[in-house]
User: Which sequence fits this backbone?
């Protein structure tokens, strides 16, 4: 048992972090001032952290420093547009921020549209064209038929231009079953994800803080 | 006129970025490169704006001694402390020995991870209190969830170690992930892609706006 | 900060609180389709790439090499290929502006690679390459090749399939937008979820308890928030008819103002403007966990009989659904965030799955923009289903004709290869 | 085969006993009353079921899955001197799942003497990447900063950064994590854009992450991508595995533990898997018990 030494710079950090971890866990018993303090401290620290990251990683090296040295003068434009965003705090000058929004909304509209079109539509469509019978690979053939049935029936489920009657109703029902299996799988994976986060916190409390075992 | 020009600008930039994907010629890829590099900087300013929003929102609560205002003071003080330390320590602020990195490990990393870890408790209580198998669909969901949960952890591997090959628990959970889950998920991916593409088209053609005008009726 | 089920994004806590004041542009809609067709036409008329053969000037076996313009690029890349005789391990690649002119060394690469991509060539100017092989028995005599010119293409032929899909889909969406604005009646089937919502509001009226409506946790830039606010208007209309109290918590300024607008309209259209309670719509906070804790407080204190969670949700949907379940309220949820649907399906009485959220808002509001997207997507799905069926038949017959020798999936039909993405 | 029959026999027996017990009114009422159980008892059960296996490990064997093996093979195929892009797009909230993957990936890359260019598209990432680099690459494998590995730190812009890196990595990251200009780093001299990178190892927690890398760069720059992601985002990436856009996947802490086993290391992920097993069993028990209580209540006519 060699717990972290609170007198050292690094050890003090581990002690504070562990106490804050217990403060947040106290929310499980009931909402209390310790949890509220930890939560507000967290929002403040992370906001300050993000501002520093944006400054030192983007605004300074890519906009302020090169312009100051006379290179990449074009980068003045996004710098000015970025400052326009703050015009909302000046009465009557709020419309300036619309220019900055124009480049954000416009650029991402174009980037996302083409990214989704190629990566999530065409590539996925191409990979869904499967041979329904491959001689010598019976297992794969059955899987391919099942795969295509699931894909087509789920697409029919998300079809809203006709009433769901007769054959369409049956296909859509099959689609719902496939959806439910995929939700079940997603549920299982989400349980696994949340639990591993808790395991990570307990490993932090047991190893760097209390030093009970090595992780 | 204050609204028309930005709207046209949005459409033009969106259209250039759309064409940028199809046209390698520098006539389009030149502006495309510029918008790529420029939007990185403008988004960075948007994050700093987020912190400014926090300042005005919480500052106002403190000014009128609203609910929990002492906690808001802690929030703003810790924000400014982080900014001050970051500026003082200069470009090497993220080196392992700096006070900024110490603050990162002590406050940011620990509390953010713990916030998420809370969800593990809620998942277990929700599984007990709110997981209702009330029809065939919920039943299918539960069966798939049980197989995947069992198949992905060592205990499932131990239980089915001597089962005939092909139907061991890890293999069943893998098959569920690779086949039924995949075909349904791919239909959802394609549907979502169409949704994003149509939203992008509306933004580029300037007909997305009216909904978003604050106070504007549909 | 914003813990998200699967998509924790760094842009959080109020940072996306940007209003979207981009108003409707009446006058022009770009001829998107026309321009793309024009570009494709220009691509056909491009000059074929110039390929220059090597001219070797020495008796010893020099490299036989060739250089060609790299296709589908911005005209700054040339692809140099060579077949090195035995014993040559490395090749020095040099470039110059004239056959005898000063050559600058670009790189020394391993010979068996067989090629070298020169990525920053002056655009449109003829250049020459000099390749000298290095091997066990000394350097081979230099082989000079050229002139070859790097040309920029106007259309990336590798992306014709993406253009094909996009042009068809955009044509559908624009057609339906034009026809819905022209007043044509576009049929959208009634989603079962809408009946579930109305039944929930009716149930709340019987028990004399309020209706809770949470329009998601995202700002206005997420289309799901907009779809939820449209549904809020029709829920408010139903609640007004039944004289039932409504509670609408929001977490961003713009959705807050729009929600007030929607609830007021609902009560107006139901003919009961006087019973509209202004503080039924509340702005709480944009910090995610505090927002969830506040809504849990509302559920436990005011004990609404109907909880409606519609819009963009992340890790908090699980917590809300569980608290609501424990109070015995009837719960209807709907989101397009697929990773949250499992929790909603098991904990709520009814769930609108993915695009059903958009279908419900299009059905209720008849809004041209929502209708055109929905109908456009529907018809595009018909195209995809048909192409999939055709493709599977072609692929099956192709695989039957030439069965795969080694592993599966190596061989594919020309139809499928046309859709390969580059 | 017999263990399968035994397992099925036990299941059938339990089902019969429960079906029988639920008919006895006294048992049914106690089951129904369970629905009002204070959820803090369940919280306590989770707390205990995680703490105990961490203190007294059972060391249950982990079974590697095909996709995890493919992740391992993609790195194994690299040759000494190849350049790899390691994009750590996550923050401490996904630390327990992704930090073990990051360290084991760096270790395998170092064993193959591959040169690593590291970057982060999440603001919360750089310190985690730097800690992993110094602990594994610098201290254990004596990699030289600037020649064998580089940490370019964070860049805002999400998909826009990926596109910009496709055209020029030094152009997108003018200076590295410490602010030293990229021109002073010899390794960066050899890195022009995503085409000059043999493989992208993407440790991803959500948006921006593997989905956006696949959409924006995989086809366009002919980039080989393998992903280590959180369990929440893993199901969606199976679609990219089947289409060949992704060449390997590690899903959540289980994926990290499998990868550690293949790399012959017992790291934090492997040590956490026992607790993972116990809590999964608890959650499954909760689902079954919860529904049992609900059926019992319905049999007694309560809502």
Assistant:
């Amino acid at each position: 048992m060699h717990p972290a030494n609170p007198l050292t710079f690094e050890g003090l950090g581990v002690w504070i972090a562990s106490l804050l971890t217990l403060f947040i866990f106290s929310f499980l018993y009931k909402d209390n001032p310790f949890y509220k303090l930890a939560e507000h401290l967290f929002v403040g620290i992370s906001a300050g952290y993000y501002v520093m990251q944006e400054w030192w990683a983007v605004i300074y090296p890519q906009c302020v420093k090169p312009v100051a040295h006379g290179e990449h003068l074009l980068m003045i434009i996004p710098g000015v547009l970025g400052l326009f965003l703050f015009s909302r705090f000046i009465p009557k000058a709020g419309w300036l921020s619309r220019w900055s929004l124009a480049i954000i909304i416009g650029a991402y509209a174009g980037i996302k549209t083409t990214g989704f079109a190629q990566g999530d539509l065409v590539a996925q469509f191409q990979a869904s064209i499967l041979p329904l019978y491959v001689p010598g690979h019976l297992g794969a053939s059955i899987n391919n038929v099942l795969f295509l049935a699931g894909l087509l029936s789920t697409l029919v489920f998300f079809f809203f231009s006709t009433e769901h009657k007769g054959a369409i109703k049956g296909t859509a029902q099959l689609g719902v079953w496939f959806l439910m299996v995929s939700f079940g799988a997603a549920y299982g994976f989400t349980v696994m994800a949340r639990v591993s986060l808790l395991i990570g916190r307990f490993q932090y409390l047991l190893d760097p803080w209390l030093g009970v075992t090595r992780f | 006129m204050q609204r028309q020009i930005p709207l046209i600008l949005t459409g033009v930039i969106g259209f250039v970025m759309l064409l940028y994907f199809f046209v390698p010629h520098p006539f389009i890829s030149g502006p495309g490169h510029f918008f790529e590099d420029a939007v990185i900087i403008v988004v960075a300013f948007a994050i700093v704006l987020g912190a400014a929003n926090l300042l005005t929102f919480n500052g106002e609560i403190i000014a009128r001694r609203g609910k929990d205002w002492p906690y808001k003071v802690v929030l703003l003080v810790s924000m400014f402390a982080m900014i001050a330390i970051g500026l003082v320590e200069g470009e090497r602020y993220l080196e392992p020995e700096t006070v900024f990195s110490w603050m990162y490990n002590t406050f940011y990393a620990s509390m953010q991870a713990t916030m998420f870890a809370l969800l593990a408790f809620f998942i277990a209580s929700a599984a007990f209190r709110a997981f209702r198998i009330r029809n065939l669909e919920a039943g299918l969901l539960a069966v798939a969830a049980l197989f995947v949960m069992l198949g992905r952890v060592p205990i499932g591997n131990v239980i089915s170690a001597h089962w005939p090959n092909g139907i061991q628990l890890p293999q069943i959970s893998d098959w569920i992930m690779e086949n039924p889950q995949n075909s349904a998920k791919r239909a959802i991916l394609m549907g979502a892609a169409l949704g994003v593409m149509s939203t992008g088209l509306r933004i580029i053609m300037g007909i997305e706006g009216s909904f978003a005008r604050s106070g504007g009726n549909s | 900060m914003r813990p998200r089920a699967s998509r924790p994004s760094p842009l959080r806590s109020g940072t996306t609180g940007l209003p979207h004041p981009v108003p409707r542009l009446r006058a022009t809609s770009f001829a998107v389709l026309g321009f793309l067709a024009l570009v494709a036409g220009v691509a056909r008329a491009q000059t074929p790439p110039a390929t220059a053969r090597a001219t070797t000037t020495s008796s010893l076996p020099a490299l036989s090499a060739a250089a060609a313009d790299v296709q589908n690029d911005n005209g700054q890349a040339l692809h140099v290929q060579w077949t090195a005789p035995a014993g040559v391990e490395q090749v020095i690649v040099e470039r110059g502006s004239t056959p005898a002119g000063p050559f600058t060394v670009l790189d020394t690469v391993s010979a068996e690679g067989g090629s070298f991509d020169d990525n920053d060539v002056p655009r449109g100017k003829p250049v020459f390459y000099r390749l000298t092989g290095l091997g066990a028995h000394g350097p081979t005599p230099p082989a000079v090749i050229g002139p070859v010119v790097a040309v920029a293409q106007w259309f990336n032929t590798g992306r014709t399939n993406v253009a094909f899909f996009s042009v068809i889909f955009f044509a559908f969406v624009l057609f339906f937008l034009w026809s819905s604005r022209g007043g044509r009646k576009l049929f959208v089937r009634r989603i079962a979820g809408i009946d579930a919502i109305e039944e929930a509001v009716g149930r709340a009226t019987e028990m004399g308890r309020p209706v809770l409506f949470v329009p998601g946790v995202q700002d206005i830039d997420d289309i799901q928030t907009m779809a939820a606010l449209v549904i809020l208007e029709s829920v408010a209309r139903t609640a007004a008819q039944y004289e039932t109290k409504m509670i609408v918590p929001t977490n961003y300024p713009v959705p807050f103002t729009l929600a007030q607008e929607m609830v007021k309209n609902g009560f107006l259209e139901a003919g009961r403007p006087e019973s509209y309670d202004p503080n039924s719509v509340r702005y709480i906070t944009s910090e995610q966990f505090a927002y969830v804790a506040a809504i849990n407080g509302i559920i436990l204190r005011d004990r609404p009989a109907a909880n409606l969670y519609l819009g963009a949700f992340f890790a908090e949907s699980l917590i809300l659904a569980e608290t609501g379940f424990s109070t015995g309220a009837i719960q209807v949820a709907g989101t397009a965030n697929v990773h949250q649907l499992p929790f909603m399906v098991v904990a709520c009485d009814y769930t609108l799955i993915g695009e059903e959220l958009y279908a419900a808002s299009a059905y209720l509001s008849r809004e041209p923009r929502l209708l055109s997207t929905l109908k456009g997507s529907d018809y595009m799905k018909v195209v995809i289903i048909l192409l999939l069926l055709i493709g599977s038949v072609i692929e099956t017959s192709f695989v039957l004709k030439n069965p795969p020798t080694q592993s599966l999936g190596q061989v594919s039909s020309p139809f499928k290869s046309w859709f390969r993405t580059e | 085969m017999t263990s399968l029959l035994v397992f099925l026999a036990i299941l059938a027996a339990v089902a019969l006993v429960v079906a029988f017990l639920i008919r006895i009114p006294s048992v049914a009422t106690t089951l129904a009353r369970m629905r009002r159980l204070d959820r803090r008892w369940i919280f306590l059960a989770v707390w205990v079921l995680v703490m105990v296996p961490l203190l007294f490990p059972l060391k249950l064997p982990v079974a590697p899955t095909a996709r995890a093996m493919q992740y391992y093979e993609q790195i194994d195929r690299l040759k000494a001197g190849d350049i790899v892009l390691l994009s750590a797009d996550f923050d401490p909230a996904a630390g327990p799942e992704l930090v073990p993957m990051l360290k084991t990936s760096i270790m395998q890359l170092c064993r193959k003497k591959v040169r690593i260019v590291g970057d982060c598209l999440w603001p919360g990432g750089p310190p985690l990447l730097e800690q992993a680099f110094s602990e594994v690459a610098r201290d254990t494998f004596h990699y030289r900063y600037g020649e064998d590995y580089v940490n370019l730190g964070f860049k805002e812009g999400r998909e826009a950064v990926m596109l910009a890196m496709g055209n020029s990595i030094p152009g997108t990251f003018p200076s590295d994590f410490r602010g030293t200009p990229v021109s002073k780093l010899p390794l960066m001299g050899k890195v022009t854009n995503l085409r000059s990178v043999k493989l992208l190892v993407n440790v991803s927690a959500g948006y921006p992450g593997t989905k956006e890398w696949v959409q924006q760069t995989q086809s366009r720059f002919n980039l080989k991508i393998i992903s280590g992601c959180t369990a929440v985002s893993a199901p969606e990436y199976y679609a990219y595995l089947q289409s060949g856009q992704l060449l390997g996947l590690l899903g959540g802490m289980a994926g990290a533990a499998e990868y550690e086993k293949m790399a012959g290391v017992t790291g934090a992920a492997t040590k956490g898997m026992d607790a993972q097993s116990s809590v999964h069993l608890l959650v499954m028990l909760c689902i079954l018990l919860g529904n049992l209580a609900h059926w019992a209540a319905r049999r007694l006519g309560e809502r």
Summary: The longest helix of chain D spans residues 268-299. Chain D has 13 helices and six strands.
